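testing teh design pipeline on a random one, pls ignore if ur not involved
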């Protein structure tokens, strides 16, 4: 294992009714809140009313940043930063999925930057200060509720760029699985694929001595494979929603990656698809993953893929590692496209064939599990077109 410092600072309030911890969590930082949310799901399912009542009852004042888009835009970040500056906001409460929480994380540093927050996201400027962010999670998917990352899109330049700052990790996360009962089938499937992809990016890495981490990974994958179909059939199954929610956080809160070097590959490939076509992140990942697996399967990687087939899908070893590995990839395909009913081809989600080479040319992934250059990436895009 490589050296690491364990530091996962988010205080998690998990379970039914844990929203009652919100006022005290806010007051630890002040009493002026930016309430950030998306396109209105929290108004339909009653979460907005619960939160604003708690604010009123506890002397917390708030202003709102609403309409945060799936694949949040840098222009929305700048709008939020301006609201925070004008209202002397003490703390941001982000209520939603990854898009809302990511946007809030960017607003948190954008508030203290006079220019376009995009400068910080692309690394042209350094953040100086951060507002604290409290996440109220409503969709099990990205793990943004407990990680350092955020991903922001600039549709003018067709760029979708991630940032990761230690100070961006939410100071607290309220995770009530009941809040995810209203998530649609499509978003439940997409979120489940995203959780799995985070684990797979960490599982398939060049470091081979993370035995413990790999077993954590396999447990997370098995959890999603077991519970995602249940959540699809019974959206209000608490046990399924709870397991998916906790898996979403652990897939990317750093724990399974400590001690390993994990340069991701499928995510950067997907971010190009979202940047150009504004597609749902988890759907893009599901389409790309089996094609990526096929492409990087070789004599050197067969052992790890065979391990994945046996330990995650319970496939009987087939004598020949390559055969076992291929069976695991087929199971992955079956799970995404049949069990979760995710569209299986890029053409099905509105990607144009002509754009494949433009997107591939923007990417070069020399340090991934298997290094990939633009030509390799184009072949993977074409294989699942
Ligand atoms: O906007 P509203 O009206 O709230 O509706 C949302 C949105 O339309 C809806 N939704 C969320 N909770 C709901 C609900 N609908 C009904 N009931 C609920 N309880 O779901 C739709 C998608 O929401 P979004 O936040 O976009 O989904 P997700 O959580 O998958 O976030 C995706 C974004 O996160 C980034 C992605 O690239 C994408 O921009 N990622 C962030 C990461 C991170 N911070 O670490 C890592 C990931 O790999 C990912 O890149
Ligand atoms: Zn992801």
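output:
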């Amino acid at each position: 294992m490589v050296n690491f410092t364990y530091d996962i600072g988010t205080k998690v309030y998990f379970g039914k009714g844990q929203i009652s911890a919100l006022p005290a969590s806010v007051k630890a930082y002040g009493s002026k809140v930016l309430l950030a949310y998306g396109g209105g799901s929290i108004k339909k399912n009653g979460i907005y009313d619960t939160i604003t009542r708690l604010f009123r009852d506890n002397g917390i004042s708030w202003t709102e940043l609403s309409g945060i888009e799936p694949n949040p835009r840098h222009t929305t970040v700048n709008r939020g930063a301006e609201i925070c500056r004008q209202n002397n906001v003490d703390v941001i409460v982000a209520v939603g999925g990854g898009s809302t929480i990511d946007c809030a994380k960017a607003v948190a540093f954008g508030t203290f930057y006079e220019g376009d927050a995009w400068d910080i996201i692309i690394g042209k400027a350094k953040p100086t200060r951060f507002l604290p962010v409290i996440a109220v999670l409503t969709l099990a998917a990205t793990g943004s509720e407990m990680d350092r990352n955020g991903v922001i899109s600039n549709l003018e330049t067709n760029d979708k760029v991630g940032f990761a700052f230690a100070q961006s990790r939410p100071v607290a996360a309220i995770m009530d699985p009941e809040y995810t009962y209203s998530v649609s089938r499509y978003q439940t499937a997409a979120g489940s694929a995203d959780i799995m992809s985070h684990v797979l990016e960490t599982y398939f890495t060049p470091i081979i001595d993370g035995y413990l981490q790999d077993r954590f990974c396999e447990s997370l994958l098995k959890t999603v494979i077991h519970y995602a179909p249940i959540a699809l059939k019974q959206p209000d199954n608490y046990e399924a929603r709870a397991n998916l929610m906790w898996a979403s956080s652990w897939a990317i809160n750093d724990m399974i990656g400590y001690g390993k070097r994990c340069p991701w590959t499928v995510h950067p490939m997907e971010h190009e698809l979202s940047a150009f076509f504004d597609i749902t992140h988890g759907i893009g990942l599901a389409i790309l993953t089996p094609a990526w697996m096929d492409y990087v399967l070789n004599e050197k990687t067969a052992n790890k893929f065979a391990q994945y087939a046996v330990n995650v899908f319970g496939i009987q070893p087939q004598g020949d590692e390559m055969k076992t590995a291929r069976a695991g990839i087929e199971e992955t395909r079956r799970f995404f496209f049949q069990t979760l009913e995710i569209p299986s081809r890029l053409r099905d989600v509105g990607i144009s064939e002509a754009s494949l080479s433009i997107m591939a040319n923007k990417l070069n992934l020399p340090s991934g599990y298997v290094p990939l250059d633009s030509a390799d990436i184009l072949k993977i895009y074409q294989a699942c077109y």
